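Chapter review: from sequence to fold.
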Amino acid sequence: MMRRCWVLVGLLAGSPTLLSAAVSAPRVTAAGDADPYSIETWAADPAWKDLSDAEFAGRLFERMSRLSVAERSPRESNDPVPELAAVADPVKLLHVYGYGSPRVLAGALAAAWQASGRGRARVLERVETHDWWTELESAGRWWVFNVPGRESFPQSAGGYMTLEELQQSRELKPATFLRYEFPAPTGHTLDLILRRGERFTRFFQPQGKRWRLSADEAKDAKLRTQLEAEPVGPKAAGETQQPLFANGVFVYEPNLKADAADFHDGVLAAGNVAVTADGLSVEKEGEGFAIFEIASPYVIVPELGKLEDPKDDREASVIEIDAAGATLSYSPDEGATWLSIETKEWPAKADLSAQVAGLSGYLLRIELKGKPAEAVVKSLKITTWVQLAPHALPTVQTGANPFQLRTGDAFGERTRAVVVTANTADENSFLRPVIRPPREFKPGDKTGRVVGPFTLRLGTPYAAKVAWFTVGGTFANDSANPATAAARIGYATGQPIGFMPLDLPTLSPQHGGSVYHVDRRVRLDLPATSVYLGVEGQPALQALRLTAHVVEDRPREPSPLVVTHRWTEAGEKKEHTATLTEASARYGFDAGADIANESVEFRVEGTPR
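The C-alpha cell string follows.
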C-alpha cells in the first residue's frame, strides 16, 4: 500500500508565526475539531458556529457521553467537604481523568453549554433515585439530557424534549427534582511549555499502577479492593473490563555544556551562573543559582506500591543530576516556600514521589557555591509521570489521518500558566496571597469558611507580567432564601484601589444546592506586574480558584516541534513523524487496517551532545 503524508503551513492570515524554542501549549487534534485548550475555546470554537442549537447540543452530549461513569469522582485534595474535593472541572474530566460521578458528568455538560454562550444550563437531581440530569436552555425551552445514562430525547420536529414533555410522554414516571445552577467550576487549561531537550509522550494504555490516589481514598478498604481487582485501577461503575486511565511521561534533559541555548530556553530564573565546557557553573566565585519549572495541566502520579501505604510509591518525578558544590531544593507553591532535597553523593538520583505526587508541578532550585569550573552542574535529567484520559488523545484510524497543531493560549499568545494555591481548608495556604483578610475565616468549615470581603495580590515572580487570568469561587448559598446569595469579584492593577467589578450571575429561587460555582476570564489591556483581587461571598466563600497567565520578556530563537504517532497494524509496529515549524499547521498520513494506537510524542530537540 502506498502511504501518503503531508504538512500544510501558513494557515493564519499574513506571515506565518514561527514556533519559539519553548513551545507553548501544543495540542494536536483531528483537523477541523474544536480547540480543546479551555472550555471556552472548545465550546465557542468557530468549528461549531454554523450548527443549530439542537445540532450543537447533540455534539456536546455525544462528547460528554464518552466520559466513563464512576461511583465517585477523582479527588485532587483532602478537603473535608466531598463536593469541594471532587474533580468537576470539565477540561480536567475530558483530558486528565476521563471519568467522574454521575453528578459531575451532568455538571460538565451544563458548564460546556454555558461556556458556548448559547444559553443557561442547570443540573437536576431526581430525589427518589438520586439520578442526575442536565437541562440546557434554548429559545426559552429547557431541553433535558441524561449524560450518565447516555440518554437524549430528540423530537421529530427538531430540538429535544423538556422534562415536562418527557414526563407527559410517560417515558419518565412522575418524580421530584431539585435544580442546581452553576454546577461546575471551570478555568482549567491545557497549558504546558516544552523546552529544548524535552519530550512528552502520551500513551493510550496505562503504564503500570500510575493513577491519582488521595490520602482519604488510600484509607478506604472497600475502595482499595475495587482498585486492586483486574484490571487494576479506577473502573467504570458496574464494569471491570476496561481501565479508565492512561499515562504520560515528561523527560527533560537539557545540554548544559558548551552551548547555552538549552539553558537559556529552559531556565525560569538564574543568577551568577553561566554555561561552560564543563557544564553550568558559577560565573564569578561565590554563590549562584538556577530555577527550573516542572509543570503541566496533568496530575503527577507515582508507580503505586501498596495502596494503603504511600511510603513505597516511586518514580512520580525523578531528578538525576551530576554536580559538584551544589545543593538542591524544591517548591510546591511557585517559590513561596523551599524545601531541601537530600543528596549524599554525586551523581545523585532523587525520587520526589512523596513530595510532589498529586501536584500538577513544582520548581527545582539548584544552588552552586565555589569557584568557576569547581562548582558546576555537569548533567541534569528530570523524568515526571502524569495521569491522562486516553480517549482525549488524537487517534490514528484506517485511511487518511489529517491532524492539526495549535499552540499558544486562548488568545494565541505564548504565556505561562501560574496556578495560585489558596486552599480554604488550610489557613497558611489561603492567607499567603491575602493582603487584606476577611472578617472571619474558618478553614475547612462545611458551610461558611470565608465571611466578608478580602483582598489578595497576584504577583509575578521571575521577571514576568500578567497578561490575563482566571478567577473563580465556590460560593455558599442561603438555602432558605437563595435570592440573598451573592458573589462579588473585582480587580485592579498596579495598586489595590479602583477595583473593576466583574459581571457575575445571580441565583434564581429554584436553586436547591448549598453551593454554586462562578469563574471568569479577564484579559488585561496591558500586561501588569501586579493584579489585585477583591472577593466577597454572601453568606460566604467556600473555595477560591486563581490562575495567572504571564508573559516573559526573554526572546527565544525559533525551534521545530517534532510530533510522532506510534501504532500497530495487525501487530506490526508503525510510526509517523512530522517536524513542524509554525504555530499553526496541518499534517497527515495514511494508515492501514487493524490499528491499535500506542502513543503520541511531542519533542523539542536540544543541542546535540
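Two observations follow directly from the output. The domain at 39-181 is CATH 3.10.620 (C8orf32 fold). The CA atoms of residues 255 and 609 lie 7 Å apart.
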